[in-house]
Amino acid sequence: MPAAISRNWPAPAKLNLFLHINGRRADGYHELQTLFQFIDCCDMLDFKVTETPELILHSNMSGVVADSDNLILRAAKSLQQTTGFKGGAEIWLDKRLPMGGGLGGGSSDAATTLVALNTLWHTQLLTEELARIGLKLGADIPVFIHGFAAFAEGVGERLQAVNPSEPWYLVIAPDAHVSTAEVFQDPLLPRDTPKLAIDTLMSQPWANDCQKLVVSKYPQVAKALGWLLEYAPSRMTGTGACVFGEFTQQQQALAALAKLPSEMQGFVAQGMNISPLITRLNHP
Ligand SMILES: C[C@@](CO)(OP(=O)(O)O)[C@H](O)COP(=O)(O)OP(=O)(O)OC[C@H]1O[C@@H](n2ccc(N)nc2=O)[C@H](O)[C@@H]1O
Ligand SMILES: Nc1ncnc2c1ncn2[C@@H]1O[C@H](COP(=O)(O)OP(=O)(O)O)[C@@H](O)[C@H]1O
């Protein structure tokens, strides 16, 4: 009897509602203080457990990332190696999130793969153990595994659950692929924002320390942000390129989307403090 396919595992995008860079560590990574919130725009994954250890990925992003580099297969392989699980999986990815946009799509795909296969393979690692595996693959992965909106410190692995408002966002994805590594290596990146207490951070205006540099280097980001600021308080997420404007009502965000210049790509999504992955995990 062939194993059934376990369908509709969501991999949500994230926004950095603020992102402060406090300094550079000896290993080259940067100390951050950031606020992660999910949005209800997701990649979708299906999984079928197999008896052989092979890991197979079918996706609509083929050719963009070599399988050996795909975070989905790297995550599945890490779980096999950590647990000694002898079986494998066939995985289907419906890629919907813009790549390299600061929305964490690849990181989220990896997190959903770890959470889903930990259940389907019955390896039953604790969340903290899965987050440790994820951290080795990317700084953004632990927050997706824990699945709650969080104030994050360190490189993004020290998480404290928070419950900010869940507004509607108009997200614009400029036609620019911003390399996270390149931004963090730029000598002009500010790296000296003082560490502040979470209460102070949550009550002051929110900003992204990477924004000025990326806006100066990528005219498409500057143009998208300039347009969006006419409609709502707006800023860049992560190291970019995506920018987001915040609206109280969905109708306001949709009205702005209707006026988006034809050369820009955008979508409306709502902030989510509980990841849809957690909801899927609790409703197998
Ligand atoms: C900046 C953030 C903020 O959420 O998001 P994105 O813009 O990528 O979405 C993340 O910290 C990104 O995490 P992630 O996207 O996993 O980055 P990684 O692949 O781990 O790192 C890519 C490269 O960026 C640099 N890097 C990353 C994170 C960090 N705290 N300090 C760094 O210096 C390192 O040079 C690293 O090799
Ligand atoms: N499944 C995947 N989906 C998206 N990007 C992936 C995936 N696997 C590997 N990558 C690589 O990881 C990089 C960063 O992915 P992502 O987490 O989407 O970054 P960002 O947070 O900047 O959007 C991509 O540019 C791509 O080269």
From TrEMBL:
Residues 200-263 form the GHMP kinase C-terminal domain. The keyword Hydrolase does not apply. GO terms for molecular function: 4-(cytidine 5'-diphospho)-2-C-methyl-D-erythritol kinase activity. The active site is at 14, 140. Pathway: Isoprenoid biosynthesis; isopentenyl diphosphate biosynthesis via DXP pathway; isopentenyl diphosphate from 1-deoxy-D-xylulose 5-phosphate: step 3/6. ATP binds at residues 98-108. Belongs to the GHMP kinase family. IspE subfamily. This is 4-diphosphocytidyl-2-C-methyl-D-erythritol kinase. It comes from Shewanella vaxholmensis. The gene is ispE.
